[in-house]
Predict the structure.
Amino acid sequence: MTQVLVPKSVLDEIREHEKNWPGVRERGGLLLGYRKADAIQIDSATFPGSWDYATPTLFRRSEQGHRLRALREWVRSAQTIDWVGEWHTHPRGLAVPSFVDQRSWRRIVSHTRKPMAFLIFNDTQIYAGLQSPRVSLVRKLKLEEDNDVAKLFA
């Protein structure tokens, strides 16, 4: 069973970005980090830019800025930091994956051929899911540990 470790600093950065985003449009980005034997450790996230498309019910990430940031992190880390997932918000909605989210996640995992972590934020909750290759449904992860440093989902 793969676990996902998310530092509080990354969660705080996403929440802070959420406060400063104009309007009630969805927003999102990549999750960058490390793959371990049975865990994904998130190290950082990318954030929306002018190249992304967002509405109150849709966020379409452009590869332009996000891919460049991921590539820079990969090079800086001597090729150890990887694209390990994605995050997005559901402003004024439930923190649960929509049909569109699930379809998108299956396509991403089909491309990467690796398990990927997915986080959805709303005003009060965080949904954590794991999509694995050759599995049609995303597995909802439960919060196992929560301390001042990180949240562990399993």
